[in-house]
């Protein structure tokens, strides 16, 4: 697609890019990987991608996205600019032209064990190890 001065031709190109490029492909190019565990917990229609501590969710069959930790959301053009705010529409169009027809690989992120991944402890054991109630406030008193 070459640059043309006609507003109609420019709009056609924007529409074609919007329909031909999946947001997941843009994220994978930027180093994000699919978080299969988080995706399975919600819905297969919303794919959660991670890069370090960042997370972005792709929805609408790859045509939209949103940042659960921020205000970012939109289409593939807004995503490219969100990832690199220094890019103007011309730069975004150039980048997206190279991604037409590519499908996401959906490569899964390697998760490291965190605090939320600890094995669950037996509630009976926790109950037995608790401190006995002391003197002072009555149960339920405010």
Polypeptide structure, described:
The chain has 142 residues and is α+β, with helices and mostly antiparallel strands. It contains six helices and five strands. It has helices spanning 7-20, 23-29, 36-42, 76-83, 89-97, 123-129, and strands at 33-34, 47-51, 54-59, 64-66, 73-74. It has a five-stranded antiparallel beta sheet with strand order 1-2-3-4-5. A hairpin with a 2-residue loop joins strand 2 (47-51) and strand 3. Helix 4 crosses helix 5. It is elongated and about 80 Å long. The termini are far apart. 16% of the residues are buried. The model has no long low-confidence stretch (mean pLDDT 85).
Secondary-structure map:
Blueprint: H1 7-20, H2 23-29, E1 33-34, H3 36-42, E2 47-51, E3 54-59, E4 64-66, E5 73-74, H4 76-83, H5 89-97, H6 123-129
Helix pairs in contact: 4-5
How much helix is in the residues?
25-40%
How many alpha or pi helices?
A: 6
N-to-C terminal Cα separation, in Å?
70 Å
The major pleated sheet works out as:
5 strands, antiparallel
Element string (H = helix, E = strand): HHEHEEEEHHH
- Helix/strand-derived class? alpha+beta
The portion of residues forming beta strands comes to 5-15%
Got a strand count? 5
Q: Give the rounded overall mean pLDDT.
A: 85
Radius of gyration: 23 Å
Identify the overall geometry: elongated
Widest beta sheet: strand line-up: 1-2-3-4-5
Q: Which blocks of ≥5 consecutive residues have pLDDT under 50?
A: none
């Amino acid at each position: 697609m070459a640059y043309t001065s006609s507003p109609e031709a420019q709009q056609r190109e924007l529409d074609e890019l919007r329909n031909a490029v999946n947001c997941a492909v843009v994220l994978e190019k930027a180093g994000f990987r699919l978080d299969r565990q988080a995706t399975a917990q919600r819905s297969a229609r919303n794919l959660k991608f991670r890069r370090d501590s960042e997370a972005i969710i792709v929805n609408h069959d790859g045509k939209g996205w949103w940042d659960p930790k921020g205000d970012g959301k939109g289409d593939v053009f807004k995503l490219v600019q969100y990832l690199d705010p220094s890019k103007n529409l011309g730069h975004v169009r150039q980048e997206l032209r190279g991604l037409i027809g590519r499908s996401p690989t959906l490569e899964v992120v390697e998760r490291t064990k965190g605090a939320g991944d600890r094995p669950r402890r037996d509630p009976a054991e926790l109950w037995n190890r608790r401190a006995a109630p002391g003197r002072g406030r009555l149960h339920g008193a405010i």
